[in-house]
Amino acid sequence: MTVESNNQEAAVIVVAAGRGTRMGTKESKQYLMLEDKPIFVHTLEAFDRLPFIKEIVLVTGEQDVPRCQDWVKAYPLEHTVKVIPGGAERQHSVYKGLLETDCEWVLVHDGVRPFVSEAQITACYEAAVREGASILAVPVKDTVKQVNDQAYVTSTPDRRSLWAIQTPQAFRHSDLRRAHEKAMEEGFLGTDDSMLVERIGVPVKVVEGSYSNIKITTPEDLDYADFIRQKKRNGERLT
Ligand SMILES: Nc1ccn([C@@H]2O[C@H](COP(=O)(O)OP(=O)(O)OP(=O)(O)O)[C@@H](O)[C@H]2O)c(=O)n1
Ligand SMILES: C[C@](O)(CO)[C@H](O)COP(=O)(O)O
Predict the structure, then answer these.
(1) SS3 per residue for 100-163
(2) Is 113 in the pocket of ligand 2 (CB under 6 A)?
(3) Probe ligand 1: pick from 42, 64, 112, max atoms within 8 Å of CB?
(4) What ligand is nearest to the CA atom of residue 20?
(5) Of 39, 112, 131, 165, whose CB is crowded by the most CB atoms within 10 A?
């Protein structure tokens, strides 16, 4: 089944309601300028021209809704962006976004991952339509160890089975909603949406992404983000 033939529409929920504690800047990291625009605007642009994206929901801090509405007017997109307030944790922000859309498919993406390419988003979406749920990821490059509270190694998982998970993550709307509501009822807080969907027994397909789809998290990521941006502008290849 091809995406063209089933004409399945998708919404993207871009979560940008975090405080950026690890970045430590006065301004929240999603609003810092990357070249000519705030980081989250670059992120919205990555989704804007894709034919299967019918809705864009931007989830921001409650106090930031007005200025985000101004920004999306100042940097016009093809889509009308619905700007809504988020919650205390990322998971709550995603759920609030979910209540604002009823497209058959939903992609969830971090507002601070501005370098995702249209090809990667499309690959993730198409895999979800084919398989039911899909996430972007890259194989880990380092050896990863489990370490206990006293800083002793307890195990070394086989690296060949370890992937670093990114966004977007794409799901059927009904599955993601069910997964979130079950997690909420059980007081479960996950670090990504796939964890919640895994808990309701939906198999999640991993699609290989790119190492340049970074999540801007700590100060050194800002220099790397400038570097990636420059490479992309010059049309240079990135892994
Ligand atoms: N309550 C929250 C927390 C996070 N996010 C968003 O989820 C994405 C990934 O989260 P992370 O990188 O952890 O961002 P922060 O929570 O802002 O960072 P920190 O954990 O360092 O405070 C970000 O785009 C962030 O804005 C959100 O929408 N709502
Ligand atoms: C969803 C995510 O980006 C996948 O890597 C990540 O888990 C978000 O974690 P954070 O602690 O909210 O940055």
Answers:
(1) CCCCCEEEEEECCCCCCCHHHHHHHHHHHHHHCEEEEEEECCCCCCEECCCCCEEECCCHHHCE
(2) no
(3) 112
(4) 1
(5) 112
Q: Which atom of ligand 2 is nearest to the CA of 18?
A: 12
pLDDT tens across 107-128, in order? 999 999 999 999 999 999 999 9
Question: How far, in Å, CA of 207 to CA of 228, rounded?
Answer: 21
- Which residues have CB under 6 Å of ligand 1? 15-22, 30, 59, 86-90, 93, 110-112, 215, 217
In a domain? residue 135 = yes
Measured between alpha carbons, how far is 237 from 239 in angstroms, rounded to an integer? 7
List pLDDT tens digits, range 42-76: 999 999 999 999 999 999 999 999 999 999 999 98
d(CA 215, CA 208): 16
Whether 239 maps to a domain, the answer reads no
Answer with the residue of higher pLDDT: 188 or 238. Answer: 188
pTM: predicted TM-score of the whole model, two decimal places: 0.96
Q: Is residue 238 in a domain?
A: no
pLDDT in tens, 165-214: 999 999 999 999 999 999 999 999 999 999 999 999 999 999 999 999 99
- Which residue's CA is minimally distant from atom 4 of ligand 1? 18
In a domain, 148, yes or no: yes
Tokens read off for 153: 């190694």
CATH number of the domain where residue 221 is located: 3.90.550.10
How many A from CA of 2 to the centre of ligand 1? 34
Instruction: Enter the ipTM.
Output: 0.98
Range of 13's domain? 3-233
Q: How many domains does the chain have?
A: 1
How remote is the CA of residue 92 from the centroid of ligand 2, in Å?
13
Evaluate: CB of 29 within 6 angstroms of ligand 2.
no
Check if 215 has its Cβ closer than 6 Å to any atom of ligand 2. yes
